[in-house]
Amino acid sequence: MALYFLDSSALVKRYISETGSAWVLELFTDALNNEIFIAAIAKVEIVAAITRRSRTGSISVTDAAAIVHQLRKDSLKDYQVIEITESIINSGMVLAETYGLRGYDAIQLAVGCAVNTLCLASGLPSITFVSADNELNVAVISEELLMENPNNYPS
């Protein structure tokens, strides 16, 4: 069993076929028994990305609705969804200031750091932070988290 935190840029690859999708899908192989953490805001970001794609015509409205439905279903069973607290907001503000991150990226990193701290305090292994965002990944490494970029694993 491994512990992963997926940001929105990685999680979307489970629902839309793009570079790195096969690698992300592997994380969900039942036999691996991986634990997948996401920030609650990731659900909003995924719905926004899917809706945007349907509006531009890159996916159909029907497919977009099916993907959003699947995300809602998966959120109940496949993910440990981490809610955004005042502590996360405060950490995100510091991370945004330190690394010049966009708002939601700073929140994603703050959640990943918080989950990692809790895992280590509980005697569990470190999480691996999974993101396809190169700018965010620089900050992830600076925060000394393990990091994987699914774009490094083209199908």
Automatic annotation (TrEMBL):
Q: Does the keyword Signal apply?
A: no
The gene for this chain is vapC_6
Which InterPro entries does UniProt cross-reference here?
PIN-like_dom_sf, PIN_dom
Tell me which residues make up the PIN domain. 4-111
Q: Which UniProt keywords apply?
A: Endonuclease, Hydrolase, Nuclease
From what organism does this protein derive?
Microcystis aeruginosa NIES-2519
Q: Which SUPFAM superfamilies match?
A: PIN domain-like (SSF88723)
Matching entries from CDD domains are given as: PIN_MT3492-like (cd09874)
An example molecular function term from Gene Ontology annotations: endonuclease activity
What name does this protein carry? tRNA(fMet)-specific endonuclease VapC
